[in-house]
Specification:
InterPro entries: HATPase_C_sf, HATPase_dom, Sensor_HK_TwoCompSys. The protein is an alpha+beta fold and 171 residues long. It has five helices and six strands. 36% of the residues lie in helices and 28% in strands. It has a six-stranded mixed beta sheet with strand order 1-2-3-4-6-5. The two termini are 23 Å apart.
Length: 171
């Protein structure tokens, strides 16, 4: 698969709290609707790196002739990705985040791995409307899966998989 982009960045910007990530820009959907999902994800990675001062190693791989999702599925994928990064910013205390996004026929997969403090498995669940439980619910509504492997003291790996409609079908 060809690599669309590879970014390694350590931000030098002033630190901001993680709630700023979710609040900028006022109309988050604009990035997905006007620029498309891939450009929106690239923008979010850049914003994340610059606002958190974390080193980000990111790769976006696009299979040939594979169209990114649009509409509701694209917006959901973008929001889930934002929430994954917000959780890294809020809880991980990481110094490095590796992001790999793959768009393949029938599947969008996002892997985010940090070298942070990790978490106990019981702490990964909570209110069904918020946090990881809410992310699992929204992922399930799209027919996808969300897998999280976290080891206390050993970082966290999140794998989000969303099925895509066949090329040419509406999302």
């Amino acid at each position: 698969m060809p690599t669309l982009s590879r970014t390694s960045a350590t931000a030098n910007a002033a630190s901001v709290n993680s709630s700023d990530l979710a609040s900028r820009p006022p109309d988050r959907e604009w990035h997905v609707a006007k620029q498309g999902l891939i450009a929106a994800l690239e923008w979010q990675i850049s914003e994340f790196a610059s606002t958190t001062e974390l080193a980000c190693d990111s790769t976006i791989d696009l299979a040939p002739d594979c169209a990114a999702p649009e509409g509701t599925l694209a917006a959901t994928a973008f929001h889930l990705f934002q929430e994954i990064l917000n959780n890294v910013a809020r809880h991980a205390r990481a110094t490095l985040v590796r992001i790999r996004i793959r768009l393949m026929p029938g599947l969008l997969q996002m892997d985010v791995t940090d070298n942070g403090v990790g978490a106990a498995p019981a702490s990964l669940e909570g209110s069904p409307e918020h946090g990881i439980a809410g992310m699992r619910r929204r992922t399930g509504q799209c027919g996808g899966s969300l897998h999280i492997v976290s080891v206390p003291g050993g970082g966290t790996h999140v794998c989000l998989r969303l099925p895509l409609p066949p090329h040419g079908a509406s999302a």
